[in-house]
Design goal:
The complex is a heterodimer of chains A (287) and B (191).
Chain A (H helix, E strand, L loop, with lengths): L1 H26 L5 H12 L13 H10 L2 H5 L3 H4 L2 H11 L9 E5 L17 H6 L16 H5 L5 E4 L4 E4 L10 H4 L5 E5 L4 E3 L24 H5 L5 E4 L4 E4 L8 H6 L5 E3 L12 H6 L1
Antiparallel strand pairs in A: 1-4, 2-3, 5-8, 6-7
Helix pairs in contact in A: 2-3
Chain B lengths: L1 H13 L10 H6 L4 H30 L8 H23 L1 H7 L2 H6 L2 H12 L4 H29 L11 H16 L6
Helix pairs in contact in B: 1-8, 3-4, 3-7, 3-8, 4-5, 4-7, 7-8, 8-9
Classes of the chains: A alpha+beta (287), B mainly alpha (191).
């Protein structure tokens, strides 16, 4: 009798549990159909979850594309854009054509101008060196030059300049995967649009500290002359960081700022093109 | 009230799930390589422990004991917890995608986690009341999360450390766990 009761009880609990799952799957709001569609799109993506597209991973990108197809036409997966056949397959699947194949490229916000003040003989890794009083350079924001970014770079676009002991990017091989961004303990690497004509080669953030000139012959002085000479707003001032800011959505060259910068720390990127005499209506209305 | 506080810290530190009771060792080594995933895993375990305790306590006291089926508790608890986690996962997946992306893959992992089953048994063996067992589950989950976070923090640094070649990877993690367990031994007898 007692055994029967136990068996019945156990079956009953099992039945109720099964029923609960059934009811839950029946009456809960339906699973987004977009999920299945996104899973299909993910099949075409590289699956590296690199985040170069600006989404937290390939699946998140697939979800964004499912929700709004124009995400693909505006910002096609930059890693896939290197692979002509791969992007063609995805284009065929979506029935769309990727318009802008402008990917992203990495830049390093440091010239390596500051000198080292102590001899470091520890582990050959930027992350390890930074643990000791923000590295061994005079400028505590400077590139360590031990090549953590070189190690993670899948294409070998990152190299360390042996003379200045600073990382530099070869834009012809950089695929804009962004793996170097979390690898840098000094937060010096950043992804910018591949048509960005210039970037700031300094990351001297500290607002209350003495300006860069004391620490580095190339350091930004925070003089803001670059903002003053750029009439079209090519350069704006990032109040939070206290550094010049180039709007990534506009990507317009700022030749005046590059020339006028007293430390020559605004560098031309490989995408820089000398602006023609009348680049558009903007300068015409200005004159 | 002081009783509840004693239970919370007792479960979190003195009788820590991982380092004193040796439960949930699988995620302790499997998901402690990165801090971010360790935090997600810890929170998911805490959540499931809480819900599992809230469901199994009335089930045991109002159904299994009156009908003399208390000896079947292992089977029944596994059944109930597994279906419960299924329902929770389904609910999260269909209502909150962001949360699902953060916790989703960890929830099915927890279904068969012995730490979750362990806390429900501890609640019953210690003869805790309903409120007490909820606090115990909260403490156990918090302790589990704490240990997972400590372990992942250490392991992230161990990746850089110059350990002997034969010890790299999991062996050094075992040694770290041993040292961590020794340090948690210091809590023994406090409560």
């Amino acid at each position: 009798m007692h055994t029967t009761l136990t068996v019945v009880l156990l079956s009953l609990i099992g039945f109720i549990a099964g029923l609960a799952i059934f009811l839950a799957s029946k009456f809960l709001p339906k699973e987004d159909e977009s999920l299945a569609e996104a899973a299909k799109i993910r099949e075409f993506l590289p699956g590296a979850d690199c985040g170069a597209c600006g989404h937290p991973g390939c699946f998140a990108y697939a979800q964004a594309v499912t929700k709004d197809k124009s995400v693909f036409t505006r910002t096609p997966c930059p890693t896939l854009a290197q692979d002509k056949q791969g992007i063609k397959r995805l284009e065929e699947h979506l029935g769309l054509k990727a318009e802008a194949t402008i990917g992203k490229k990495a830049v390093v916000h440091c010239t390596g101008g500051s000198h080292s003040i102590v001899a470091y003989e520890g582990l050959e890794s930027c992350k390890a060196a930074v643990q000791l009083a923000s590295g061994f350079n005079e400028c505590s924001f400077a590139c360590i030059g031990m090549g953590d970014c070189v190690t993670v770079c899948p294409t070998g676009a990152m190299t360390i300049d042996p003379e200045r002991n600073v990382a530099s990017v070869d834009w012809s091989t950089c695929i804009g995967c962004g793996l170097c961004v979390p690898a840098c303990p000094q937060h010096l690497t950043e992804l910018v649009p591949a048509d960005m004509p210039q970037y700031l080669a300094c990351n001297y953030l500290s607002k209350r500290d003495i300006p860069g000139r004391k620490r580095c012959p190339d350091g930004c002085l925070h003089c803001q002359i670059c903002v003053k000479v750029s009439a079209d707003g090519e350069v704006t001032w990032d109040e939070k960081k206290d550094l010049p800011y180039f709007d990534p959505t506009r990507s317009i060259p700022a030749p005046a700022a590059i020339e006028k910068c007293p430390r020559h720390v605004i560098k031309k990127s490989p995408a820089y093109e000398e602006p023609t005499v009348s680049p558009g209506s903007d300068s015409a209305s200005e004159e | 009230m002081s009783n509840l506080i004693a239970i919370f810290f007792g479960m979190a530190l003195v009788n820590n799930m991982v380092l004193a009771k040796f439960l949930g060792l699988c995620p302790f080594f499997g998901v402690s390589k990165k801090l971010s995933s360790a935090v997600s895993m810890g929170i998911a375990v805490l959540l499931v422990m809480l819900v599992a305790s809230a469901v199994t306590w009335p089930l045991y006291h109002y159904l299994l004991i009156p009908y003399g089926a208390a000896f079947m508790r292992t089977v029944i608890f596994i059944l109930v917890i597994a279906s419960l986690v299924q329902i929770i996962e389904m609910t999260i997946k269909r209502t909150n995608l962001t949360l699902y992306n953060a916790l989703g893959i960890y929830l099915p992992l927890i279904t068969t986690n012995c730490a979750v089953l362990g806390i429900t048994f501890i609640n019953i063996d210690q003869a805790y009341s309903f409120i007490e067992s909820l606090v115990a589950a909260l403490g156990a989950g918090a302790g589990f999360t704490l240990v997972l976070i400590i372990m992942s923090g250490i392991r992230e640094r161990l990746e850089l450390a110059d350990s002997p070649k034969a010890f790299r990877g999991t062996p050094i993690a075992f040694i770290t766990a041993m040292l961590l367990g020794l340090s948690f031994l210091a809590f023994k007898g406090m409560i």
